[in-house]
TrEMBL record:
Organism whose genome encodes this protein: Arthrobacter sulfonylureivorans
Low complexity composition-biased segments: 251-261
Spans annotated as Disordered: 241-275
Source organism superkingdom: Bacteria
Organism classification: Bacteria, Bacillati, Actinomycetota, Actinomycetes, Micrococcales
Pfam short name (any one): ABC_tran
Keywords, alphabetical: ATP-binding, Nucleotide-binding, Transport
InterPro entries: AAA+_ATPase, ABC_AA/LPS_Transport, ABC_transporter-like_ATP-bd, P-loop_NTPase
Name by which UniProt lists this protein: ABC transporter ATP-binding protein
Chain ranges of the ABC transporter domain: 5-238
Length: 275
């Protein structure tokens, strides 16, 4: 079956900085994929090339069976690619409802009542119904992160790209987000989630990739990737003994494949940017 998203031979560099080098990635319909990698690895740049915000130097982006490499971002959004931004970018002076309504109408192509209904449903799903009439600029970090997800969802995506939506949140807030992403997945939406809060990813994804220096250095089930010596070296600069695994098992039990869901990478280096 043709993958929903297919990246082939993507190259991108900024001067000497290589953010993608002959990068290939296939994401199936309804699949949930996690991406980890050190700061500056090229993770957000990869999303930008998928969503149409950044033009690759070479390579091809295919979505839903069509080559979208030269299509602008708004067309890719209409085709079903929804995304969040690492640093939330709501229209600060507009209400939460208006922000999501813009996504449903401009991004999702809905009109009138249909757009309003979509916006209301997404706000309820994202736990923002109570904040619908608040100005987006007045939201807390958790609410801003939820609004990012809501704006992405309101476009009616087949693929949702999440860029560090858990960064900076408290543990209970992260768990709320994991539940929300679980509901999105259950609707058949494919998810690609870049995240430094690895235990959230492990609970949510079928497959984990590690990006470093513009290349995927590991790709497989989350437990295997998190035990990969190259991945450990990148994050800890030493062997597996550096990984802290709390004694108690978190609610929901261990992740498939035996990885402790509470296993986490060190203080997320990229989270500062998301604050
Ligand atoms: N528009 C740009 N112009 C020049 N350099 C850029 C641009 N965008 C990104 N870069 C550089 O490319 C590299 C990769 O950036 P990117 O934001 O994709 O990394 P990342 O993996 O998302 O990192 P983080 O975990 O910190 O979010 C960084 O060195 C960054 O400074
Ligand atoms: Mg980033």
């Amino acid at each position: 079956m043709t993958p929903l998203l297919q990246l082939s031979g993507l190259d991108k560099r900024f001067g000497q900085v290589v953010v993608a080098e002959a990068l290939d990635l296939a994401v199936a319909e309804g699949e949930a994929v996690g991406i980890v990698g050190p700061n500056g690895a090229g993770k957000s740049s990869l999303f930008a090339m998928v969503s149409g915000d950044l033009k690759p130097d070479a390579g091809r982006v295919a979505f839903d069976g069509e080559d979208v490499t030269s299509r602008p971002a708004h067309q890719r959004c209409r085709a079903g690619i929804g995304r969040t931004y690492q640093v939330p970018r709501p229209f600060e002076g507009m209400t939460v409802f208006e922000n999501v309504l813009v996504s449903a109408s401009q991004g999702g192509g809905l009109h009138g009542r249909a757009a309003q209904q979509q916006a209301a449903e997404v706000l309820a799903e994202c736990g923002l119904a109570g904040a619908a009439n608040q100005r987006a600029g007045s939201l807390s970090l958790l609410q801003r992160k939820r609004l990012e997800v809501a704006r992405g969802l309101a476009t009616g995506p087949k693929l949702l790209l999440l860029d560090e939506v858990a960064g900076g949140l408290t543990e209970p807030e992260v768990l709320e987000l994991v539940e929300l992403i679980g509901r999105v997945k259950a609707r058949g939406v494919a998810v690609v989630w870049i995240e430094h809060v690895v235990h959230a990813l492990v609970k949510s994804v079928d497959r984990l990739l590690c990006l470093a220096g513009g290349r995927f250095i590991a790709d497989g089930d989350p437990a295997t990737v998190l035990a990969d010596p190259q991945v450990l070296e990148l994050y800890f600069g030493s062997g597996p003994e550096a990984v802290t695994i709390p004694d108690e098992e978190p609610a929901g039990g261990p992740a498939e494949g035996g990885a402790p869901a509470s296993q986490s990478l060190p203080a997320a280096p990229g989270e500062e940017a998301a604050r």
